[in-house]
Design brief:
Elements lengths: L20 H29 L15 H29 L13 H8 L6 H8 L2 H15 L4 E4 L2 E4 L12 H17 L1 H19 L1
Antiparallel strand pairs: 1-2
């Protein structure tokens, strides 16, 4: 059977019971590699945005579809990167924690809340409770399910739907850069997050004895 078609033991939502530590950490590596790829995808979309950032509105006052598509590509990829980090943590610890969350639309938040008193919960709380992340989540939901206002002022495209606490630029290109920079801190601190997860893994193994 092709590896891509093989059902993976211990993937998030299935539990890690009976899966060896080596297999759990191998899956950690798969998820964190996927997270890195999502950040590369976000950077790719951001680069394409520069071709259309100054294009005038169409007859309906809307931005060029190329600009909107690549902007939403950045937002989606950044949020997906966080989901994949949540999955990496889950594949190591989920079966050994009661009521561990299943993958959902706010997976990293759910993992953070479940691990609030255990590593790496506090680290995730600090990363998530930032104005840019809250605004990113609002934008991702609006782009998927509703609508978000975009305006063209003095030759630049602005986003109206941003959290009030977000005090930086609302220009699409600059905001996309800021989103990628924030998400990149997940990757830059991956060794620290792994260390915290290893600590929790050891604690859970000790409790099970």
């Amino acid at each position: 059977q092709h590896p891509l078609l093989r059902r993976r033991q211990g993937s998030p939502g299935q539990g890690a019971a009976g899966v060896t530590p080596e297999e759990r950490w191998r899956q950690w590596g798969e998820y964190t590699l996927a997270m890195s790829r999502k950040l590369e995808i976000a950077c790719y979309h951001r680069g394409l945005m520069d071709l259309f950032r100054r294009v005038q509105p169409d007859k309906n006052g809307l931005p060029p579809i190329e600009l909107q598509a690549n902007f939403e590509g950045v937002v989606s990829a950044v949020v997906s990167a966080s989901d994949q980090l949540a999955s990496a943590i889950a594949t190591v610890v989920d079966a050994r924690i009661p009521h561990f969350p299943k993958p959902d639309k706010a997976y990293l938040w759910s993992v953070r809340e479940t691990l609030s008193d255990n590593p790496p919960g506090p680290w995730l709380e600090k990363w998530l409770d930032t104005p840019i992340w809250i605004s990113l989540w609002d934008l991702r939901n609006a782009s998927r399910h509703r609508y978000y206002e975009k305006g063209f002022e003095e030759g630049i495209w602005l986003i109206a739907l941003l959290a009030d606490a977000y005090g930086a630029s609302h220009e699409l290109g600059e905001y996309a850069y800021a989103a990628i920079r924030h998400a990149a801190t997940l990757h830059d601190n991956l060794s620290a997050v792994r260390s915290l997860t290893e600590n929790l893994d050891a604690q859970l193994s000790e409790r099970a004895r």
